[in-house]
Request: fold
Amino acid sequence: MFDWIAEQVRTAAMATLWPIYELMHDGSSRYFWLYCLTGLAIVAYVHSTRKGERRWQDIVFDRETWSGRSALNDYFILVMGSVLRLTILSWAYVSWKPIATWVASVLVGLGVSGTVTDQTAIGLGVLLTVSLFLVDDFLRWWIHLLMHRVPELWEYHKVHHSAEVLNFTTAERIHPVEVIITSLTMTLGMALVNGIFIAVAGRHLTPVTIFGANIFLFTFNVFGGVLRHSPYWVSFGPKVERWVISPAMHQIHHSDQERHFDKNMGGSLSVWDRWFGTIYIPAEHESIKFGIGEETKEFRTLKGIYFRPIVQSVEVLGRRLKAFGGSRPGTPARVS
Ligand SMILES: [Zn+2]
Ligand SMILES: [Zn+2]
Reply:
């Protein structure tokens, strides 16, 4: 028992440095150094095309954005997220590989089979890469939609929306319960796609990645993915925003104005929002206040961030059970 505790403490201490590793080496991290660099280059370029604004450095590196109370909470949640992930919540980070093997064996049992040849290897590899990206992006959109639509889940997702300023680390301002739900869903999606491809083509295919990130996700992140959580308005224009979520579109998602509620849930692509009616393409530069209105202040303490959502969610569930039937499906959690 003592050894186990000592091991957990050692791992927790090392985990506090994990965000730095991700910053330096992990292309699947949302704040990978290259994304930060290209994001700043995009801001500098966009700024050069605008007149009459403050210096872009003053907007992006505003003191409150990086060292205010909201930002300090972001940093704590970021580090604590790594600690929890590598210690007591490590069980939630199951490998997709054995599940993929099981999916493949079921499909083979149903008669699905195939192999890969020199002629089909490249095509199938690209198809695997596209499939993984699309399934991952759709599942992220769907989980995000549930977080907004199911009142019990909205209580946890409020943590992300309670950020009063957005900086590059706000992307990781997520309650552990939401992290677990998202992680397990993504694992299942990855296992399903890989399982299908293993059944059809064997185990020879690997997706195309750069710095460990799916090439499509890498491309999205290089073109300003990091700016979604920043105070700088960058729009791609309505034609591109029909397909891709721009930084401005995600900033709208964080707005505390009612017309922006429950819009733009997408991770990389905006097609899911467009097809399911939750898209909001800004016609012009809108000034936005981030947060969830009056309730924002409840999330300024660590107690409010970690424990309040659990209590509130259980209360909402209790009320639902009492009411015998609960809220109507599709009712936005925010107004219920
Ligand atoms: Zn949201
Ligand atoms: Zn966000």
